[in-house]
Amino acid sequence: MSDRCPCLSGDTFGQCCEPYLAGRAHPPTAERLMRSRYTAFARGDATYLLASWHPSTRPASLELDPGIRWLSLEIVGRSGGGLLDTEGEVEFTARYRVTEADGTGRRGTQHERSRFGRDGGRWSYVGEA
Ligand SMILES: [Zn+2]
Hints:
It holds the Pfam family YchJ_M-like. This protein is an alpha+beta fold.
């Protein structure tokens, strides 16, 4: 809880994404939701990833690759997604390290522009823009 949050906001996990992952609060902006979903990937929390996925695009289940370790998140752009918006996009670069079945490792980058929507006061992930 007192460790640095995986989303690299600069806050501790307990003061950043943990209340969202625990379901005690909902992210107020699309970027905060995006950060909390990155943290869920970093912690292997498939339940939160599904819960924060818009019902119209949510998969029935989600298998997270245990060989992937998420290293860092950088927000590179955003539009909308604010306190008064109902739609928003967040562009990010996430870096990871994957360990293959033969034990070799390699690093990779995921770059995505994600689309978010807000229904009933709650932001959710819609898909790639
Ligand atoms: Zn965080």
